[in-house]
Amino acid sequence: MIELRDLIATTGFNPIIYWVLALFTIPLLSFFSNFFIKSKAPIWATTLLLLNTGISLFLVYAHWYGEAVSIKGVWFSIGDTVLNYSFYLDRLALIMLVLVNGISFLVHLFSIEYMRTDRQKPKYFAYLGLFTFSMIGVVLFHNLLLMFVFWELVGLSSFLLIGFWFDKKSAALAANKAFLINRIGDVGLLTGLMILYSQFQTFDLEAIRTLMVFSEIEDGNWIAHFTNNGVDVINTLDGRWLSAAGIALFLGAVGKSAQFPLQVWLPDAMEGPTPVSALIHAATMVAAGVFLLARVFVLLDAQALEIVAMVGAVTAFMAAFAALSQLDIKKVLAYSTISQLGYMVMAMGVGAYSAGLFHLVTHAFFKAGLFLAAGTIIHQLHKLESDKAKFNAQDLRVMGGLRTYMPITFVCFVICALALAGLPGFTGFLSKDAILLNATAWAEIKGGGYYFVPIMAYVTVAFTSIYIFRLVFLVFTREFRLPKMVGDLDIGKKLKEGNWMLIGPVILLSIMSISFVFGANVKAENTWFMQFIETPISFVPIPYAAFSLVDLSESTIQGLHNWVSFVSIGLAIGGLIFSYFSYRPISKKALIFQDAPEPRGPLGKLSFYHFYLDGLYEKVFLKFILFNARSMAWFDRVVIDGIIDGFAKMNVIVAHIVRWCDKYIIDGFVHLTVYTSGRIGHATRSVQTGNVQTYIMSAMAILIILLLWLVF
Amino acid sequence: MDWSLIIFYAFGFIALLSALFILFTRNILHAAFALMLTFLGVAGIFIFSGAEFVAITQILVYVGGILILIVFGVMLTNKVNGKNIVTPVYRQGIALIVGGGFFVLFLKAIMQANFGAISWITKSTESEPSSLRYLGLVLMTDYVLAFEVIGILLLIALIGAVYMAGAKRKEVPGAN
Amino acid sequence: MPIEHLLILGALLFCIGLIVVVTRKNAIAVLIGIELMLNAANINLVVFSQFDPNHLQGQIFALFIITVAAAEAAVALAIVLKVFHYFKTADLDKINGLKG
Predict the structure, then answer these.
(1) Which CATH class is domain C3-87?
(2) Contact of A87 with A136, CB cutoff 8 Å
(3) Number of C-alpha atoms within 13 angstroms, CB side, residue B175?
(4) C-beta of residue A456 within 8 angstroms of C-beta of residue A449
(5) Confidence check: pLDDT of C37 > 60
(6) Would the pLDDT of C20 be above 70?
(7) Using a CB-CB distance cutoff of 8 angstroms, which residues of chain A are in contact with residue B102?
(8) CATH tag, B3-127
């Protein structure tokens, strides 16, 4: 019988703990110190992050070939319950560390120049430090509850950074939206946590994994049998709770990684500064959801995984469709992110654990590259703004022909775009290829309606290619449209490449998007990534476990593989040609693009307004909730305050009655007494007639009476 | 026939009848004159009681002084124009009751008193006749204090009366 | 004459005098009544004095009473005259400044 206490026992001392603590402390130090250092904040923050990146690279170097390191200790104990904390440094964690720290460092560097004129710079770099700190926490901790704590912190940092320019009302609202929708997902995560805890009495992921393996399904009941501190524990739940736990945990990922139906916050999150979008909403935070899925992958049963795959596919399709008609460069990239995240989630759902994670890593680099390149463009265009010329620097309509002004940016952008579209020679192709292969194999095995998933995936490939090259053509080819729209514009020498702090990160990231990084071979499974990161086998008890794709025979894979690759490459190139003909320099669309209005046709509108999701949510949920809130407020104001006012009024009335009583009854008594005394006095006064004879008479009368009484 | 007793009673009746006349008459002057008759009657009773000096003093002072004063008062406070000075009488009922009560009281007292028990009352005829000389003697020795005080009283009364009724002072606004 | 008769006479005179005082409206008439009462008292005194060995105490008292009555009549008249000046009437009903 497994003893729980053994599973979560404190490990011995390991010097690696120092490095781990350093990884935490440095960004946290950046957060706190940047509030006090005013002028040197950017450089100080960037240096710290460079340090952190160095540490994470070192850790990779030292521990890549070794066993995963696990450090546990006691967090706190209440009575008999002991909660522990644990760090887990396996290869996945190491890669994530490099990714997070590296991209964070590049974003810091970029921000030095990008935010140079902003007065709130120190606060910005502090928030960036806070974000990095929270993200590292999510990556390193292997305890579900602690992960949740840092998960929330990540959400908080996102809120702070999206709403950084909070004077702008739309930015503040977008930050609120992001946080609230994140919260909805977090409820799911918390529920999943609690289900697992009630079954296994611990939050530690390693322990849960072990206990899950040893749990059984009997007659539709999920039974966990172990001993806790010597006490025999048998926890029985209905089998459906197993799926429920998986779905609940997935909900957390849905919220954080912007999957359907909670993807509406990501486009709005573009209100934040572009480096923030690059860091958080392209590379790291949104990847946290996928990372969570990876960590709990072995706990998800077949039903949950099916739902994961469906949701991923649908999201990928919807977002790619929406990206086709957007007019803001950042919005296109935002929808693109949602779509690619859909791919990663879908990969997890079909069981392609390593493929999904591979895509996460490649996507992080080329998407960050795309965002930072867009940032450079926006930054340079802002320089053209003056009192006489006002325009929206993010609008596609004002751009065009920037190839001549910013050639380096153009080249980098194209490289990253090719990676995104999934064309061979670039990293995107490798990871996307792996996902598509696995999805097709999955659908083949399951058959029938499950083909929905890969078909969605393929269509999305086409859309991806179309929208990204549309972007390329509209921004960089033909002629610069802005002078035609805004008169009195003096370009001169002003529109040129940004300085090395802007361009350097972009170049670095685009280099990372070329396929040689991951291996010389074109085929995905030969990359070092896929070889080192292996898909684990599900630990869920047999009747509920999903089948594993790992079991597929080699030949099946090979046959499928060639076919899949041909189709995806064909679609990608098809999309490229389509957008070329639509948006190339001399096409009709390009000519009039500066006057292009928002789409009017039904399909166009559906795309532009993102399937009217925002409107739907507003009508269905917001109106109801706000109505509720207003009715509560009305109730409080009218009924409850009414009751209190009624009390008060009653009190006043009672007071009036008392006063009346006092005035008429009590004072009445007094008056009565006075009156009676007066009357008596008046009566007795009449004795004093002033007439002497009556006095004499009265005296004599009394005398007589006296004497009569004496004598008789 | 004891003539002295009859005259005694006659004087008594005169006094009584005059008093009744005073009571029932409306005319003040008639009342004043009836008063004089009363005084005379009383004086007669005094003589028959052996108090000759008191009787004479009574006539001198009362009739000769006080009665004149009363008549002067009447004349000074009423317009004398030949008509009768008539003042009404009222409140008779209750006055009769009060007076009657008093009389009944006195009557009771007198009837109940057993004058035979007082030793010195029975020796009426054995006493000395009063003499004026003895009166003066006693006045100057036994009752000299009262005598002097009376003198002072008379002085005060004289001064007071003269002062009040005499010199014209500033007219005080009257109630009428 | 038996003493009781004289005493009864005195009592009668006194009561009559009282009634005169109380029933008359004119101030002088009241004075008359008062004199009547005083006389009644005198009769009483003198009647009892005849039994005195020296016939004296009652008589002397009676003398004093007469004197005092004279003084009092003089002063009373002076007052009446003054009141008559002030109130312009000798009607006792009208002289009611003491009315409270």
Answers:
(1) mainly alpha
(2) no
(3) 15
(4) no
(5) yes
(6) yes
(7) 700, 704
(8) 1.20.120.1200
